[in-house]
Amino acid sequence: MSEAEGSATGEVPRAGTWFPNGATSRVVLIGASTFASKDLPDIPAVRNNLEDLKAAFLHPRYGLFADTQPEHCTVLGLDEKQVLDQRAVGGALAKARAAADDLLLVYYTGHGLIGDDSKLHLALEHTDPEQTGFTALPLSVLQRELAGARAAARVLVLDCCFSGRAVDAMGANHLLAPVPPPTRGVYVLTSTSANSLSMARKGHRNSIFTGALLQALAQPEPLSLSDVYQFVRHTQRVLEVAEPQTGGIGDAHRVALVRGPVPAGPPPVPPRWWRLSRRRSASRWLRGGVLVALTGAGVFGYASLDSGTAEPEAKPTPSATRPTRPSEARQPRPAERPTGEKPYATRKLTVVLNKTKRTPEGVLVGVNGLVGDIYHNGSKSAFGGGQGQIGGSSAVRSDDGKGANTSGLVSFFVDTSARGCKAHGVSIGESTVVPGPAREWTKVLVVGVTPKVPGTDEMGATFEVTQGEGPAPEGDKTCA
Q1: What does the pLDDT look like over 250-292, one tens digit per residue?
Q2: CA 235 to CA 374: how far, in whole Å?
Q3: Is residue 299 part of a domain?
Q4: Range of the domain at 435
Q5: Residue 85 is assigned to a structural domain of this protein
Q6: CATH assignment at residue 172
Q7: Are 267 and 303 in contact, with CB atoms under 8 Å apart?
Q8: Same domain, 246 and 323
Q9: Cα(170)–Cα(155) distance, rounded to whole angstroms?
Q10: 47 Cβ partners below 8 Å, 6+ apart?
Q11: What percentage of the chain reaches a pLDDT higher than 70?
Q12: Cβ-contact 205, 48 below 8 angstroms
């Protein structure tokens, strides 16, 4: 049958959206939310991801399996009595592969691990990060099952750290290239790149990627997979996290997973991107103090985002004539600031990695990445973490007064009453300048970095924040 006439099982317009036939399609949802290993933190959002995607596929009106058996959507990871291991996953995949003629979709959510072979492995309930080859699910298993399927469209969706490795591993020149009998297409969609973390926000129902995916499925008109990718990509860009990746061959990018809007939770995009802060991940950092070591044996991560640690501010007296703005958004009026060309406020802030702090004048500073080296009595130690683009080729040393010198680079963001700014790879002793209206300016100088902020067990950076009016000083790093 020609493409214009459609496939024998699904609706496939020549230049339109491909609506698979639920009766001859199969979906396997796999999620690992709890782990026996103490080195793998639990991910509460995983269970919600599974429940919400299952509800979308089984939606009574618009779901792919609305008119078919619910067993066509297999979910592994919700039944606490069922062991989530390689045997359980392999059995479910084999059964779905044998039954799917139109669409075979496999989805995984959980921890992504890099094994000794530098390849991606998917964590299961009893995975040991030091023995990924024996206790985790290798990506090659999914490759093999999808490659052997006769389904017209074969789709893999991964929501885990380092999942972008699947795009190259399953591309047109690899195992999923068309094999007899002829196939219509293969599509891979991943939550992040090959060397980046996937994110879940603390207190939110879904991970960022799956939350955006669910929002895409809730749109008034059904979106093809290529449109879903664009939707998720935009969402993750707004949230300042690593972007999703995609790849494929053939027509599978035109597949629609639903036939209309399905319910979804709150959108994952907050009103303003700088309200987020990133918690340190479990990634290893190279001793050189600049790059993340992502390819060593057993490296893993699934970072979480929380609401930050903005310093408390005095509550303003409510106005009797207009609504009061939230204290977090309130900034001092220009009339309250001294005029002239002298700096009117200089504050020192020590900000924990992946947290934020605000000066009394309302300038918010957040740290999303740092690295540092400490030289002491002939020895050297390195530290670092976060999701910022560290960059840079040199770092200035700063004497901490205890016989040790520290060098470091910081990535941070600044929010003033006038604008927001992001600065990458700023060395100790360097600064960035944020211009404002009416000849106002804010200068943020990196004073130092430390592996342990007093009163915490977290890394952090110290800044000197100066605000003034008149000719703006020059900064060492551009405000982007």
Answers
A1: 889 999 999 999 988 777 765 443 333 333 333 332 223 333 3
A2: 38
A3: no
A4: 308-469
A5: yes
A6: 3.40.50.1460
A7: no
A8: no
A9: 11
A10: 31, 33, 77, 78
A11: 74
A12: yes
